[in-house]
Amino acid sequence: MRQKPSIESPSSAIEKHLGHLTLLFPAIGGRLSTNPCLIGIPTDEIKPLNGIRVLDLGAGDGIWSVILAEQGSNVTSLEIASKQVELARERMRIHGLIWDARVGSAFQLRNEFKPGSFDLIFGQAVLHHLTKDLERVYADSYYLLRDGGYAVFTEPFSGSAFLRSLRERLSWIIPLNAESPDERPLTLQDIESLKNYFSNVEVNHADIFSKFGRRVFRSKTVEVFLGDIDRRLLRYKSFVSLASMVFMSARKS
């Protein structure tokens, strides 16, 4: 019988999987690039993801698939745009890696894969494009995971309708991304819906002020300074609605 790879915990798993790169929130310090030649890949002699079956959901051009594969995992990347999948395959060639890069929809996961196909489902800024039917994505993610597996997502977040409206009015300062018709930040209700399918869900928020260091001042020093303020404030629940990013880790019991 095939031995199931173990994932210790949501936090330690993600940190190990990506080596010294920062996944939990978007301040990745320019280590990644849309140019497939310029990815900073952590190279560990001991591969922390060795043998773990990972679905990179909404993988785009494979920017995270490269890192996941380099860390030893058996990666399947799923992306609806065929041109992006072509770029992912180019990344494979450049970095000498192999994974299963597929064209497919996040709304058709049960048609694409068998139950229990993965140990880890990884999503980096994908769910906020799927808001027309998040319930289906949550349900199918549970279906695809083996018992004890994890689904982890890092997403834009809006905990306040007023602040979201204000953010839209200030888009001339910090432009809003609008790549898909149903794109919007996740809400508290969206996060609660995940708990309807997974009984063990870990949620962490970030990015109150640090985004200004990244997008307005374009200074890593300012971003790190403001990020430290964010972490201190977000220890208190009253500040959660001010966050603009959320990390969710859900374990299948």
Give the secondary structure arrangement, pairings included.
Layout: H1 10-17, E1 53-57, H2 63-70, E2 74-79, H3 82-95, E3 100-103, H4 109-112, E4 118-124, H5 134-144, E5 145-156, H6 161-169, H7 188-194, E6 200-206, H8 210-215, H9 220-233, E7 245-251
Parallel strand pairs: 1-2, 1-4, 2-3, 4-5
Antiparallel strand pairs: 5-7, 6-7
Number of domains: 1
Question: Which topology does CATH recognise?
Answer: Rossmann fold
In terms of structural class, how would the helical and strand content be classed? alpha/beta
Please tally the β strands and state the result.
7
- Provide the low-confidence segments as ranges: 1-43
Q: What pattern of helices and strands is seen along the backbone?
A: HEHEHEHEHEHHEHHE
* CATH arch. level architecture: 3-Layer(aba) Sandwich
Tell me the name of the CATH homologous superfamily. Vaccinia Virus protein VP39
- Relative strand content: 15-25%
Helix content: 25-40%
Largest sheet: 7 strands, mixed
Radius of gyration: 18 Å
The multimeric state of the shown protein is single chain
Descriptive report:
The protein has 253 residues and is an alpha/beta fold. The chain has one domain (10-159, 183-208, 241-251): Vaccinia Virus protein VP39 (Rossmann fold). 32% of the residues lie in helices and 19% in strands. The chain contains 9 helices and 7 strands, in the order H-E-H-E-H-E-H-E-H-E-H-H-E-H-H-E. It has helices at 10-17, 63-70, 82-95, 109-112, 134-144, 161-169, 188-194, 210-215, 220-233; strands at residues 53-57, 74-79, 100-103, 118-124, 145-156, 200-206, 245-251. Strand 4, helix 5 and strand 5 (145-156) form a beta-alpha-beta unit.
